[in-house]
Write a structure and sequence with these properties.
The complex is a heterodimer of chains A (797) and B (445).
Chain A (H helix, E strand, L loop, with lengths): L9 E6 L2 E6 L4 H7 L23 E6 L10 E2 L10 E3 L5 H16 L15 H9 L17 E2 L4 E3 L9 H10 L5 E3 L6 E3 L13 H5 L5 E3 L12 E6 L8 E7 L2 E7 L12 H5 L14 E4 L2 E4 L2 H15 L3 E4 L6 H15 L4 E2 L7 H11 L10 H6 L2 E5 L3 H4 L1 H14 L2 E6 L4 H5 L3 E4 L5 H6 L7 E6 L8 H12 L2 E5 L5 H7 L5 E2 L3 E2 L3 H11 L11 H9 L5 E5 L9 H10 L1 E6 L11 E4 L8 E4 L5 E4 L12 H11 L9 H9 L24 E6 L13 H5 L6 E3 L1 H6 L7 E5 L4 E8 L7 E5 L1 E2 L2 E2 L10 E7 L9
Parallel strand pairs in A: 1-5, 16-17, 16-25, 18-19, 18-21, 19-20, 21-22, 25-26, 26-27, 30-34, 31-33
Antiparallel strand pairs in A: 1-2, 3-4, 3-5, 6-7, 7-10, 8-9, 11-12, 12-13, 14-15, 14-27, 23-24, 28-29, 30-37, 31-34, 32-33, 32-37, 35-36
Helix pairs in contact in A: 2-3, 7-20, 8-16, 8-20, 8-21, 18-19
Chain B lengths: L20 H6 L4 H7 L3 H10 L12 H6 L10 E6 L9 H7 L1 H15 L3 E6 L4 H16 L15 E6 L9 H8 L13 H4 L6 E5 H13 L1 H5 L9 E8 L5 E6 L4 H7 L9 E5 L8 E2 L9 H6 L8 E6 L4 H15 L5 H18 L7 H12 L7 H21 L6 H4 L24
Parallel strand pairs in B: 1-2, 1-4, 2-3, 5-9
Antiparallel strand pairs in B: 5-6, 7-8, 7-9
Helix pairs in contact in B: 2-6, 2-10, 3-6, 5-6, 5-7, 6-7, 6-10, 14-15, 14-17, 15-16, 15-17, 16-17
The chains are: A alpha/beta (797), B alpha/beta (445).
């Protein structure tokens, strides 16, 4: 590949009689696009290294820029421009046009021509080109190459070898972009085919991209196969809701139901890629647990009722609470909806107890978010492009491949193209970190503060902090100190899509919209003037405190929006809170929270609504309505507005656009901000093995319900331990390990991880059937380990 | 120009245990190395450049000039890679050389590596030829033991290690960049150029890739001097080379002669066509080079002489066929070879050879239709000039040249199976007890 060159170095050449200037190093096929000429191609892809394998993009070069031409046509996908070059494409050269037609003829001789039953038909480059430039009848009357089909490459991806044109886009994607070189060419000549090593299926978090970039119908996904024709689909460009990366996606629906999701093209964010969770994880609302009518609890049972009755019941309970109300908004709301909750809590309910963090959090984190994340504009935030300019990126309590896959892809690109160095403060070198060529700073969770203090940072370094750092007392303080001292850039990357937007909307105790501290009188007055209501000056409770106060009766009511007890570090304590308080749940699906709710108000799905997210870079990412919005359930904002009316107040808006306008009416805050009071690190546990954990991309998330093929590609659930700790703990002969905490035990297969820090055991946080919250212990604390027998096999006693 | 044999590379092939270091030394072996180590590397390079040695692997690129393309200011290591993946149908010169006199090659490798400042050299030998492979490995071992390889060779301060690598049986790995991929443990498919191997070849480092015979010619240049070398051959094709003759000649084998000998003289040296038969057609440089016919006995066998005839010197492998041979059958079998050996990377080669074989088999079976010969040429035209590497060019060259010279024989395929007008048993070189049945499998599509 050519070295990156500055845009200033331009080269002028002539294509089909038109002079064009393009940056030095540009490939001819791209330069032709700049001149308005589309050269047909199959193997070429702008984000992959050139292969020049299909030979479809042949052009005639009558002058290579040195006064001499090439005697033979040249592949424009692998030829870089030169000053003074004269190029003739199929538009002006019969030699180029003939070459392209001849290659097309050869590509079709072994093609099954089964367009009528092919998923790709209608959006197939081979079909389009055969139609536009091919012969109407084949001259080939011999025997075609035949293969059994389809063959699975993984649980998600199937291969039809007869349709394949061997362009190697998929193998190059797997190797160059995803870093999972599990798809390879095997055999040779006409028998050449795409294949896998039988014991290593193409289990990549990014496998679905190969279906999208396949220029024929050779690679299909098990979910979408035979389910629709492209021309029957209605496409909507929107934003993926599965993490905070902000990827653009295209959602295709038929008869009001989403059939597939594709990566959108957003050069500054996800380029043309998406992860499998974003692509295949959209079935969760198809179960029989959808809430479609308002429910109220009568005699211990939730029973369907009318909207007026449900709203009246909710208003009655909330009025009785007299401001002793907590609001838990989860992390998956659009910015507009989060703003509606922020205003509903403070302006209508008169409480500052609002928190979007349905996860482990801390006061230190609340201050960190209020001082370092809230109130930032897009311009003064870290961006994806900063990875390309940085010399080093340091990951602290952050596993991009699991927690923000597109961040991983962009980091990997910067590593591959620009020689970016990645350093990770983690207990072991994860598969994702290994693919980034990252340097591991092997760190027990309880030692993160010391490790962060020891980092070597400077102005060209970017520090990416994960939300998990809130689990380490002093961790965020240490990062802030290190970043402030070195001038390094820092960004906080949450897992959930709505957290940045919720923080901007003020869904944190003590934090008003736009980063305004509640304790600042000017800020309070500004917001109160806009909302036309008095604001309580007392800082409210965060999520954990709300649940605890609810359990002990000091908080009377809770309003929840898309949260589950299992999201919180102590689900049992959360359930105790939901059990005691008067709970109004705004939900689209039944859950362990609605099980304890007194009123359930149904809200529509994200795919039925409009709005926007803020990704981790504070970039506004539009959310578009994909399928028609039924009259019931209503949008969350509409429900909140109705509930406000029932409470005798005015929310001020009833639509997403109304909320957006209201939020935009708030000027940027110029006043004081919350200050972060540095927190000292907690002492390491004196004995025992320390627990480390995070959520893997594909785990028991309820958003993946119904995505069965995707779930089959989840990584094997194992507990990881260093060889040294294995010996010390006497587990050397065991293949399973039992982790025990104060509240319970979990048994997992044992995996020896050579890069693992000693004295640590790592396990996935939310594996199916093995949720670590059962232990009753948080990350950084000690657990006891014991050898355990494996699961009983069938027939065994 | 002379017409007589000039044994240099083949001189010691007949001597007792010619493959051993002792036998090689007794013939003056390693004299060239001794002289080279007294010279500066650039002087050695210039000596080879001035000798006008051209690549013996087919393309005929000047060897010394190729060496000079290695950027000596590049901080990466420089590598010499010797292409011993001799697999072209008809070609049989490197394998006998490695078998009979592996030290000629080893000495050449040391001198050539010295000239380009390489400290690692690789000899990539076709995997199927186990015996020559063992001989080369043994020669390398002997050279190490004798202080001709390793650290501080012969007290010169120059270090060199040689790695002998066996291929895994793919013709494409004779293509230099596919060879590099294979050597690195990757799939044997050609690489995009640029970058050229001289700049970023093996392990992305500057690399020179030379044919076995080219490298084996270097010791004699150093031992006897460039003037001796340029005294042989023609104006632009200097020196001697090994011609390998096979097929319907009385004495097939390797004939070392100056470049520029005529086909007629070479045929005379080999005793002529077998008794009672006449030359019908021959390949001048292996099956990848367009064929010539019995009218071309005056052809001058050097790079220019064959280019003038619209073909190539290639690997100087003359496959010689008399009038009993069906050119349709021969062509079909050649193209089957290329179809089998196509690496599959690019469309024209992968799909085109698949189609050509079917068309040729149809004509051979006498099942062709009016227009099939034109279709055959048209498919050749689909392939020509569009493939990734030159493998497909070779596959097409034998077809187009055969049709050019023997079109009517192909057109006979519209009505008559090839074996009916040219019974295959007539071209057998040995007598068989009964005429072999035509194998169904052999001409199956």
């Amino acid at each position: 590949m050519s070295e990156p060159v500055s845009m200033a170095e331009m080269v002028t050449l002539n294509i089909d009689g038109v002079d064009v200037s393009v940056p030095k190093g540009t490939l001819l096929i791209r330069a032709a696009e700049a001149a308005g000429v589309a050269i047909p191609r199959f193997c070429d892809h702008p984000l992959l290294d050139p292969a020049a394998a299909c030979r479809e993009c042949m052009v005639e070069i009558t002058d290579a820029g040195n006064g001499r031409g090439f005697p033979k046509p040249q592949p424009s996908c692998a030829t870089t421009v030169a000053a003074g070059m004269t190029v003739k494409t199929q538009k002006t050269s019969s030699s180029a046009a003939d070459a392209q037609a001849e290659i097309l003829e050869l590509l079709l001789i072994n093609h099954p021509l089964d367009c009528p039953i092919c998923d790709k038909a209608g959006e197939c480059p081979l079909q389009n080109q055969a139609l536009a430039d091919g012969r109407s009848e084949s001259r080939f009357d011999g025997a075609k190459r035949q293969f059994p089909k389809p063959v699975p490459m993984s649980d998600l991806i199937l291969l039809d070898r007869e349709r394949c044109v061997l362009c190697t886009r998929c193998t190059r994607f797997a190797e160059q972009i995803a870093g999972d070189p599990l798809l390879q060419l095997v055999e040779r000549g006409a028998k050449q085919q795409i294949g896998i090593y039988p014991e290593e299926p193409f289990d990549s978090y990014f496998s679905g991209n190969v279906v999208q970039i396949c220029p024929v119908g050779a690679l299909t996904s098990s979910d979408y196969r035979f389910s629709a024709r492209p021309f029957d689909l209605t496409s909507t460009v929107t934003t993926c809701e599965n993490c905070a990366a902000g990827c653009q996606i295209r959602v295709d629906a038929r008869h009001g139901e989403v059939r597939r999701r594709l990566a959108g093209e957003e050069g500054e964010v996800n380029e043309e890629w998406s992860c499998d969770k974003g692509r295949f994880g959209f079935f969760s609302a198809r179960g029989n647990d959808r809430v479609t009518r308002p429910l109220v609890r009568r005699g211990g049972e939730l029973v369907p009722t009318s909207w007026p009755e449900a709203l009246a019941a909710a208003a009655r309970g909330l009025k009785l609470a007299e401001g002793s109300v907590g609001v838990l908004t989860g992390g998956r709301l659009t910015t507009e909806t989060a703003y509606a909750y922020s205003r509903f809590a403070r302006g209508v309910l008169g409480t500052d107890s609002i928190d979007c963090r349905a996860r482990a959090s801390s006061d230190e984190e609340t201050q960190f978010l209020a001082s370092r994340v809230a109130g930032r504009s897009f311009e003064d935030s870290v961006h994806y492009a900063d990875f390309d300019a940085a010399t080093k990126v340091v990951l602290v309590a952050f596993e991009p491949e699991d927690e923000s896959p597109n961040v991983f892809l962009r980091l990997r690109k910067a590593v591959r193209k620009n020689g970016l160095v990645v350093e990770t403060v983690a207990p072991y070198l994860s598969r994702g970190s290994a693919k980034l060529g990252a340097t591991l700073v092997p760190t027990r969770p309880c030692d993160v503060v010391a490790a962060v203090s020891g980092l070597s940072l400077d102005g060209s370094t970017v520090v990416l902090v994960g939300e998990r750092l809130a689990q380490i007392p002093g961790g965020l303080s240490a990062v802030v100190a290190a970043v402030d001292a070195s001038g390094a850039k820092m960004a906080w990357v949450p897992r959930r899509v709505g957290e940045i937007g919720a923080i901007e909307a003020g869904c944190l105790p003590g934090l008003l919209p736009g980063g305004r501290p509640l304790t600042d009188e000017a800020a309070r007055l500004e917001v109160s003037a806009l909302w036309k209501s008095e604001l309580v000056a007392r800082v409210g409770l965060d999520a954990a405190a709300q649940l605890q106060a609810a359990a002990d009766g000091s908080l009377k009511a809770l309003v929840t929006a898309g949260v589950e007890a299992g999201d919180f570090p102590d689900p049992q304590a959360a359930l105790a809170g939901f059990d005691q308080a008067f709970v109004v749940a705004l939900e689209s699906r039944l859950s362990d929270v609605t099980d304890h709710a007194d009123v359930v108000l149904p809200v529509d799905l994200l795919e039925q609504t409009e709005g926007s997210f803020l990704d981790w870079e504070h970039r506004v990412r539009p959310v578009k309505q994909v399928v028609a919005n039924p009259r019931t359930p209503m949008t969350e904002i509409r429900v909140l507005a109705a509930l406000s009316e029932a409470l005798g107040a005015d929310l001020g808006f009833r639509t997403s656009q109304g909320a957006a306008d209201a939020l935009a009416a708030l000027p940027a805050w110029q006043g004081t901000t919350v200050t972060l009071t540095a927190v000292d690190p907690a002492p390491a546990p004196p004995t025992g093995v320390v627990l480390s954990s995070w959520r893997e991309l594909i785990d028991d998330s309820r958003s993946l319900d119904g995505a069965d093929s995707l779930l089959d590609t989840a990584r094997p659930v194992v507990a990881r331990i260093s060889p040294q700790t294995l010996r010390v703990e006497g587990l050397a002969t065991s293949s399973y390990v039992r982790l025990t905490g104060p509240k319970g035990s979990v048994t997992l297969p044992l995996h020896v991880e050579p890069t693992m820090a000693d004295g640590v055991i790592w396990a996935p946080a939310r594996a199916r059937d093995n949720t670590l919250t059962q232990l009753g212990v948080c990350v950084g604390r000690a657990v006891t380990l014991a050898a355990a027998p494996g699961p009983k096999k069938e027939g065994e006693e | 120009m002379t017409d007589t044999l000039t044994p240099v590379l083949t001189k010691n092939w007949g001597s007792d245990r010619s493959w051993t270091l002792d036998a090689y030394r007794a013939q003056g072996g390693y004299d060239g190395l001794r002289r080279a180590l007294t010279m500066a590397p650039t002087e050695v390079m210039n000596e080879v450049k001035d000798a006008q040695l051209r690549g013996r692997g087919g393309a005929g690129f000047p060897t010394g000039l190729k060496w000079s393309f290695v950027p000596q200011d590049n901080p990466k290591p420089k590598y010499l890679v010797v292409n011993g993946d001799e697999s072209e149908p008809g070609t049989c010169k490197d394998i006998p050389l490695m078998m009979a006199s592996p030290h000629t090659l080893v000495e050449g490798v040391i001198i050539s590596s010295y000239a380009i400042n390489a400290h690692h050299a690789f000899i990539y030998v076709r995997g199927e030829v186990v015996h020559p492979l063992r001989r080369v490995r043994q020669a390398v071992r002997e050279a190490y033991a004798a202080g001709l390889l390793g650290q501080n060779i012969q007290g010169s301060g120059y270090d060199l290690d040689i790695i002998v690598h066996a291929g895994a049986g793919a013709y494409i790995c004779g293509e230099e960049t596919a060879l590099l991929n294979s050597l690195e443990g990757r799939r044997g498919q050609p690489r995009l150029r640029p970058p050229f191997p001289a700049v970023a070849g093996l392990y992305a480092s500057p690399t020179v890739i030379n044919n076995v015979e080219s490298i084996a010619s270097v010791p004699s240049i150093l031992a006897y001097g460039k003037d001796w070398f340029t005294s042989m051959g023609t104006e632009k094709s200097k020196g001697f080379t090994i011609y390998s003759l096979s097929g319907h000649v009385k004495h097939p084998g390797q004939y070392e002669a100056p470049l520029g000998i005529t086909m007629g003289s070479l045929l005379d040296l080999a005793g002529g066509i077998r008794d009672g038969h006449q030359l019908k057609f021959f390949t001048p440089g292996g099956s990848s080079t367009p064929i010539l016919t019995g009218d071309d006995l005056d052809t001058v066998l050097d790079y220019e002489g064959l280019a003038a005839k619209g073909t190539m010197l290639g690997t100087k492998a003359m496959q010689i066929f008399d009038e009993t041979v069906s050119v349709v059958r021969t062509t079909r079998r050649w193209v089957e070879f290329y179809k089998h050996e196509s690496c599959g990377k690019c469309t024209p080669c992968r799909e085109g050879t698949w189609w050509l074989v079917q068309l040729l088999a149809k004509l051979e079976r006498g099942e062709g239709e009016e227009g099939d010969v034109d279709k055959l040429l048209s498919v050749c035209d689909d392939i020509t000039g569009k493939s990734f590497c030159t493998l497909a060019e070779g596959a097409v060259a034998c077809v187009t040249s055969a049709v050019k010279h023997f079109r009517s024989e192909f057109e006979l395929g519209y009505t008559t199976p090839a074996w009916e007008h040219l019974p295959y048993e007539h071209s057998a070189l040995f007598t068989v007890s009964s005429a072999p049945e035509r194998s169904e499998k052999e001409v199956a599509a």
